[in-house]
Amino acid sequence: MQIIPAIDLKDGNCVRLLKGEENSETIFSYSPVEQAKKWESCGAQTLHLVDLDGAFSGSPKNREVIKDIVNAIDCDVQLGGGIRELSTIDDYINSGITRIILGTAAFKDPELLKHACNKYPGRIAVGLDTKGGKIAIKGWKETIEDSTEQVLKDLENIGVSMIINTNVDRDGTLEGIDTDSVKEFLDSSPVPVIASGGISTEADLKNLNKLRSKKLFGAILGKSIYQGTIDLRKAIKRYHN
């Protein structure tokens, strides 16, 4: 599985939230570009960027910082947060973003998702964030009633190439990943999955690796690598394949 460090952007800074709550941020770096360079130097092949201001407001807010990051590094970049128009997707793809992650827009504007998948095959992912066992949207403020299994089937039919599954209840808590929930999600998914939320120690990575699921593309690391409970360089050497 690929080990993917996260950079969450809020007010131009690199932060981490607790359980996706808007006002719970801890600032870890005032220079996201330097942070991106650091993670790349540890061996990261992909960075996971989230425009948190965009996720909460519904429109991109950290566009210039994101472009600065892309221009400063050579590794792939996947991006989510507030992307709800095709013109925004065009702009980011043209700026060098490798993979676009749609969240709320995938459910509120299915035509946008279809157009994006047709225009950029293999480069559109959907963030399926779960909160209390339900899919959460609009910056994790709302949940929808559709079953996860049905949603996954529908997304495959549309042409979505990747799912980023975040357990919001554990995101930023360092409580450890819910391996059983991840396994259940992987078993239900017809497309590759990147797991996120609560990964706190190398034991979590070991447990994910033990799943031996062909659907598990990677794991996103956030607070664990900022607070040092996981050494990113060592984790990449040990688990990245």
What does the secondary structure layout of this molecule look like, with pairings?
Blueprint: E1 2-10, E2 13-16, E3 26-29, H1 32-41, E4 46-51, H2 52-57, H3 63-72, E5 76-80, H4 86-95, E6 99-102, H5 104-108, H6 110-119, E7 124-131, E8 134-137, E9 142-144, H7 148-158, E10 162-167, H8 179-188, E11 193-196, H9 202-210, E12 216-221, H10 223-227, H11 232-239
Parallel strand pairs: 1-4, 1-12, 4-5, 5-6, 6-7, 7-10, 10-11, 11-12
Antiparallel strand pairs: 1-2, 2-3, 7-8, 8-9
Describe this structure in words.
With 241 residues, the chain is an alpha/beta fold. The chain has one domain (2-239): TIM Barrel, CATH 3.20.20.70. 39% of the residues lie in helices and 26% in strands. It contains eleven helices and twelve strands. An eight-stranded parallel beta barrel has the order 1-4-5-6-7-10-11-12, surrounded by six helices. α1 (32-41) packs parallel to α3 (63-72). The longest helix is centred in the middle third of the chain and has 11 residues, at 148-158. It is globular, with a radius of gyration of 16 Å. The model has no long low-confidence stretch (mean pLDDT 91).
